[in-house]
Amino acid sequence: MRLYMSFFLCTFATNMNTTLLILIGITLYILVVNTIAFALYGVDKSKAKNGKWRIQEATLILVALLGGAPGAWIGMRSFRHKTRHKKFTILIPLAALVQGAVFVYITWAAIAVL
Predict the structure, then answer these.
(1) Structurally, how many domains does the chain consist of?
(2) Using an 8 Å Cβ cutoff, are 71 and 36 in contact?
(3) Can you tell me the distance from the alpha carbon of 87 to that of 51, in angstroms, rounded to the nearest whole number?
(4) What is the distance between the alpha carbons of residues 94 and 89, in angstroms, rounded to a whole number?
(5) Inter-residue contact 30 to 65 (CB < 8 Å)
(6) Which domain does 41 fall in, by range?
(7) Which has the closest alpha carbon to 42: 72, 86, 69?
(8) What whole-number distance in Å separates Cα of residue 11 and Cα of residue 80?
(9) How confident is the model at residue 14 (pLDDT cuts 50, 70, 90)?
(10) Calpha distance 62→100 (Å, rounded)
(11) Which of these, 91, 54, 58, lies nearest to 83 by C-alpha position?
(12) CA 114, CA 106: separation in Å to the nearest integer?
């Protein structure tokens, strides 16, 4: 019985550490990609003002869809950039809401495992 209990506790501890590492990794990824998305909107706005070559719209949308939608949305509002384009005003906030819900679900599931 003791052997079984110690095996169970070691397995639980390993799963707990793995779960924490995964959760930390996901959080770091989201922070980095949102910072990049925010910065891209600022750089693109600056290039637009100065008449320089711009960042492609597909790139801005791709970064948002890869997890950076909240950062892109904040960047849109902060820099007043791409706020007249329907595909940005609909797609980015919708993606931000979905990504936020997924992150909350993943966090909730990870806490339940711990």
Answers:
(1) 1
(2) yes
(3) 23
(4) 9
(5) no
(6) 2-113
(7) 72
(8) 51
(9) low
(10) 17
(11) 91
(12) 12
Residue 85 C-beta-side C-alpha neighbours within 13 Å: 15
Tell me the two tokens of residue 65: 């869809």
Taking only the tens place, the pLDDT of each residue in 51-70 is 999 999 999 999 999 999 99
pLDDT band with cut points at 50, 70 and 90 for residue 8: very low
In degrees, to the nearest 5, what angle opens at C-alpha 98 toward C-alphas 91 and 36? Answer: 70
d(CA 40, CA 97): 20
Cα separation, 25 vs 91, whole angstroms: 26
Average pLDDT over residues 23-46: 96
Q: Which two tokens stand for residue 17?
A: 């550490």
113 and 15 Cβ atoms separated by less than 8 Å: yes
- The predicted pLDDT at position 2 comes to 53
pLDDT at residue number 11:
53
Residue 17, Cβ neighbours under 10 Å: how many? 11
Read off the pTM.
Answer: 0.82
